[in-house]
From TrEMBL:
Parts forming coiled coils: 156-183
Biased composition (Basic and acidic residues): 338-358
Keyword Transmembrane: yes
Ranges that cross the membrane: 109-131, 137-153
Enzyme class of the recorded protein, top EC level: transferase
Keyword entries, A-Z: ATP-binding, Coiled coil, Kinase, Membrane, Nucleotide-binding, Phosphoprotein, Transferase, Transmembrane, Transmembrane helix, Two-component regulatory system
Protein species of origin: Spongiactinospora rosea
Lineage: Bacteria, Bacillati, Actinomycetota, Actinomycetes, Streptosporangiales
Region (Disordered): 338-363
InterPro entries: DUF7134, HATPase_C_sf, HATPase_dom, His_kinase_dom, Sensor_HK_TwoCompSys, Sig_transdc_His_kin_sub3_dim/P
Descriptive protein name: histidine kinase
Length: 399
C-alpha cells in the first residue's frame, strides 16, 4: 500500500497539471453551487457576464504553478470589480488564497512580496471604494488570512530548497566517497603488483640457479640434472600461475622497486613474529594453526600475512583498552582460511562527532587482495561482541 501511494505521488509530481486541474474543477463546482444558492449580505445576483467571470477565475487555478503572479493579478482585478459592483464573489476569495500561496511557494522572494503587496493593495482599494460595512469587514478580516497563506507558501519553498540542498550534499559526499574508494583500490592494486613482482622475480631467480646447476652436472650426474630440471618445471608452473593471477591489475606508473622492497616478502611463517610484535605493543593475542601446513602459493601466503597484519592493526587502534585477539590459521584439503577475532568494545575516546571509525582503506585493499585469488572475505561484528575478519582461499591440486 505504501509503495502504491509513493508511486502515485511520484506520478503526480511529474504531472503537476493533473492535480491543479482537479483543484480547479472542484472550485468551479463549488462556485456553481454558490451562485445558485441564496445570496448572503443582500448582494445582488450576478448577471451572465459576472457569473462567467467567476467561473473562469476558478478554472484558471489550473495554471497556478505556471503563471501564478499573472493569475493573482487577474483574480484580484475580477474580484475587485465584483466587490465594487456589489455582486457575489463566490469562490474567488478561495482562488485568490490559492494564487497567493502558489506565488510564495513557486517564485522568488521579490515576486512573492510583490504578489502580497498587490493583494493588500486590492484590499485597501476595496475598503476605500465605498462598499457596505459588512463587505468592508469581510475584506479587512480576509487580509490576515492572505498573509498566512503567503507565509505558509514561503515556508514550503524554503523547506524544499533545504531538502534539495541536503540531497545535493549527500550526492556530493557519495561521489567523493566513491572516488576515495577507487583511489584506495588503485593504490592497493599497485602495491600488490609490486609485491607479486618480487614473488615472480624470486621464482625466475630460482629457475636460473637450477638451470645453471643442471648444465654443470648434465654429463657427470644425469639423475641430479633431471631433478634440477623437474624443480625448474615446478617453479615455472608456479610463476606462470602467479602471472595469470595478476594480469589486469599490474598498472604501476614506476616499475622500479625501492631498496626496502627487494627483500623476500613475508608469509604465514612470519605470523608468530607479527603476533609477538603486537603483544609488545600491548595487544594480548593467541595464535592457533590447525591442519597440516603445506606449501602455499606465494601470492596467497603474502595475502594471508597482510590480512592478519591489517586486522590486528585495526584491533590495536579501534578495539579499545583491555581487548584481546585470536588468530586462527586453518589448512584443509583444497582450502586455506584465516580468521582474526577480537572482543573489543570500541575506543575509550570516540570521535568528536560521536561516531565510531569504520573500516579504513587497509580493509578496502584487503578485499581486492582476497578477490585477486578467488577468495571469500567477511568483515563485520562478531557474535558475542567484538569484530571479526575471516578469509577463505581456494587451493588447486590440494595446495
Amino acid at each position: 500500500m505504501r509503495t502504491t501511494l509513493g508511486g502515485l505521488r511520484a506520478w503526480l509530481g511529474d504531472r503537476p497539471l493533473v492535480p491543479d486541474a482537479l483543484l480547479a474543477a472542484l472550485l468551479v463546482a463549488a462556485a456553481l453551487a454558490r451562485l445558485i444558492s441564496p445570496l448572503p449580505y443582500g448582494a445582488r445576483p450576478p448577471g451572465l457576464a459576472e457569473a462567467v467571470a467567476v467561473l473562469l477565475g476558478c478554472a484558471a487555478v489550473a495554471v497556478r504553478r505556471k503563471w501564478p503572479f499573472t493569475l493573482l493579478c487577474a483574480l484580484e482585478t475580477t474580484h475587485l470589480s465584483l466587490v465594487v459592483a456589489g455582486h457575489e464573489t463566490s469562490m474567488l476569495d478561495t482562488a485568490i488564497l490559492i494564487a497567493v500561496y502558489s506565488v510564495a511557494a513557486h517564485r522568488g522572494l521579490a515576486v512573492s512580496l510583490a504578489a502580497l503587496g498587490v493583494d493588500l493593495l486590492a484590499v485597501l482599494v476595496g475598503v476605500a471604494s465605498g462598499v457596505g460595512a459588512e463587505t468592508r469587514t469581510v475584506l479587512l478580516v480576509g487580509a490576515p488570512v492572505v498573509v498566512t497563506a503567503w507565509v505558509v507558501g514561503r515556508s514550503l519553498r524554503m523547506r524544499r530548497a533545504y531538502l534539495a540542498e541536503l540531497k545535493d550534499r549527500a550526492e556530493r559526499l557519495e561521489r567523493a566517497r566513491d572516488a576515495d574508494t577507487r583511489a584506495a583500490r588503485a593504490e592497493e592494486r599497485s602495491r600488490i603488483a609490486r609485491e607479486l613482482h618480487d614473488v615472480v622475480a624470486h621464482h625466475v631467480s630460482v629457475m636460473t640457479v637450477q638451470a645453471a646447476a643442471a648444465r654443470r652436472i648434465l654429463t657427470t650426474n644425469p639423475q641430479g640434472a633431471g631433478e634440477a630440471l623437474s624443480a625448474i618445471e615446478e617453479v615455472g608452473r608456479t610463476a606462470m600461475a602467479e602471472m595469470r593471477n595478476i594480469v589486469g591489475v599490474l598498472r604501476t606508473d614506476d616499475g622500479r622497486a625501492g631498496p626496502a622492497e627487494r627483500g623476500p616478502q613475508p608469509g604465514t611463517l612470519e605470523l608468530p613474529a607479527l603476533v609477538e610484535q603486537m603483544r609488545e605493543a600491548g595487544l594480548p593475542i593467541q595464535l592457533w594453526t590447525e591442519g597440516e601446513s603445506g606449501d602455499l602459493p606465494p601470492g596467497i601466503d603474502l595475502a594471508a600475512y597482510r590480512l592478519v597484519q591489517e586486522a590486528l592493526t585495526n584491533t590495536l587502534r579501534h578495539a579499545g583498552p583491555g581487548a584481546r585477539a585470536w588468530v586462527t590459521v586453518r589448512h584443509e584439503p583444497g582450502e586455506f582460511s584465516v580468521r582474526i577475532e577480537d572482543d573489543g568494545r570500541g575506543p575509550a575516546d570516540p570521535r568528536p562527532d560521536g561516531e565510531r571509525p569504520g573500516p579504513g582503506h587497509g580493509l578496502v585493499g584487503i578485499r581486492e587482495r582476497v578477490a585477486l585469488y578467488g577468495g571469500m572475505l567477511r568483515i563485520g561484528p562478531r557474535a558475542g561482541g567484538g569484530f571479526e575478519v575471516r578469509a577463505r582461499f581456494p587451493l588447486k591440486d590440494g595446495r
